[in-house]
Amino acid sequence: MTIIRDCSGDDLELVQRMNESALPAVNSLTIDDLAWFLEQASYFRVADTGQELVAFLIGLNEGVDYGSLNYRWFDERYDAFAYVDRIAVSPAARRQGLANRFYADFEDRCAGASGRVVCEVNLRPANDGSMRFHERQGFVKVGSQETENGAKEVALMLKELRSL
What we know:
Elements: E1 3-6, H1 12-21, H2 31-40, E2 43-48, E3 53-61, H3 69-77, E4 82-89, H4 98-110, E5 116-124, H5 128-137, E6 140-147, E7 152-160
C-alpha cells in the first residue's frame, strides 16, 4: 500500500532523481534546491510504497521569498493561495490515482485558509496530459507567460475551492 508522508532529508536524493527524470515537465533542481524546499515549503510530501518512493509534490503558500516567475505572478495578483510548485510520479506508478490523492491532501493541508490552489502547466513545450488532468480537477486558465527567455510558455491555472 502506498502512503503519502512528509519528505525527510534522507529522501532528497531520490526526489532529485525523480525530478530530473520528469524534465521538461518540471525544471531541474539540485539537492540544495530541494533542501531549501524542505525548509521553506508549506507542503513537501512523498508517496512511499514501503520499498521505494514513487511520487512527490511540493507546494508553497503566499508570501515566500521564492524566485520563480510563475510563483511571483500569483503572488502579485492574489492575497492568499496555495501554489503547486511541482509534482512528479514515476512511470511505473502512473494511472494509480496518486496525483489525485496528492492534490486532495494538498488542498486539505494548505489551501483551506486561502480557498484557492494555483499552478502552471506548460503550453510550450506542451504538456497535454497535465492540462487535461488540471482541467478535470477544476482548474481554469487565468493567464499565461513566457519563461526561460521565451523557451517556455506556461498557462497560469487557478482552482477556487470555495467562494471568497
